[in-house]
Specification:
The chain is mainly beta and 334 residues long. Helices cover 0% and strands 44% of the residues. It has one domain: Neuraminidase (6 Propeller), CATH 2.120.10.
Length: 334
């Protein structure tokens, strides 16, 4: 089983809402907000030290976020780095066509990110990002529905946005990921008839037909958006997902293509903005924010708690991030 106490990664003063991934060589890549800009850094020593931060957004001061909204990072083909973020069009009272989801990428043999692109040029929310080693990139965004803007050439060009045709809770955090067979999985909160279930929508490779499954079990009837976070990650046998229901953190494990409804496990009775990281032995570290305290619990392959709950106080109210290193170490970004 992976170690019970996670390592805490230290980012520069003022960094918040981080997102992190590990590439094929074990390098940790992280993006985060600092004031009104997005920054990127990487670590080749499992999160002990990081490179000098590199600004991601082309236009200085044109980024926003907080709580669960922040940059999303994915590692793609040849360990290319893809990042999306919320721009500051609303805050700066710019025309609506200046709002939207911003995207850029960094190829391994370059030192600067490409010029940022606004992929949808409209008021929208709840962005998430997925990329894989085959050149697929998917940007998820919401504006009266859930849309997927996809690329098949590593982000060089994007296809017109596809409507997943679901009824989302538009201000709750989504997550997206590609599985090994090329299936795009999108975790989101639905609001049909004001029941705020957590759902998993999936698009198989070379298909235009989305499947959709409710994966939460505890019903949450509420007539307004609860503004929650979520998390989705790969495991050795499929996927692990985490979400909020009634201010509680739940998680589950799914087979790769979510063919059967999974069992919901409650991680804590009070928490927000979950992170779920899975080790190869089936153990999982689930972390969350409780006000300004980061808390975490290790679960075994049987999804039973192992050891005592850990915590780190006074680290801020915004979402954390986490990764599993190549050596099997859990690393958290408070």
């Amino acid at each position: 089983m992976a170690q019970e106490a996670p390592r805490m990664a230290t980012l520069p003063q003022g960094a918040f809402v981080p997102d992190a991934e590990v590439d094929s060589h074990g390098v940790i890549h992280v993006a985060y907000l600092n004031a009104d800009d997005v920054y990127y850094a990487r670590s080749a020593d499992e999160g002990r030290t990081f490179t000098k931060p590199l600004r991601v957004n082309t236009e200085a001061g044109f980024a926003s976020g907080g709580r669960f909204r922040g940059p999303d990072l994915a590692v793609g083909k040849n360990d290319s780095v893809h990042i999306i973020w919320y721009n500051a069009g609303y805050q700066q009272k710019r025309p609506h066509e200046d709002w939207g989801v911003m995207y850029t990428r960094l190829d391994p043999d370059t030192k600067r990110f490409e010029k940022a692109r606004n992929l949808n040029q409209r008021p929208s929310d709840n962005f998430s990002l997925a990329a894989d080693g085959k050149g697929n990139v998917a940007v998820i965004w919401m504006a009266g529905g859930v849309f997927a803007t996809r690329s098949k050439n590593g982000g060089k060009t994007f296809l017109p946005a596809a409507d997943i045709k679901v009824d989302p809770c538009e201000c709750c955090g989504s997550r997206a990921i590609y599985t090994a067979d090329g299936t795009l999985s999108v975790l989101y909160r639905d609001k049909t008839e004001d029941i705020r279930d957590t759902n998993l929508a999936q698009l198989a490779a070379d298909s235009d037909s989305w499947s959709n499954m409710v994966i939460s079990e505890t019903p949450w009837p509420i007539d307004s958006c609860p503004m929650t976070g979520s998390f989705l990650t790969l495991t050795k046998s499929g996927l692990a997902a985490a979400w909020e229901t009634k201010n509680q953190i739940h998680f589950t494990a799914l087979d790769e293509n979510a063919k059967s409804k999974p069992k919901e496990i409650r991680a804590t009775d009070k928490g927000r903005y979950p992170v779920a990281i899975a080790a190869d032995d089936g153990s999982k570290l689930v972390a969350w924010k409780n006000d300004t305290t980061l808390e975490w619990q290790l679960f075994g392959s049987d999804n039973a708690p192992k050891g005592d709950r850990g915590s780190l106080a006074n680290v801020g109210e915004h979402r954390p991030a986490g990764v599993l290193t190549k050596s099997g170490t859990f690393v958290l970004f408070p």
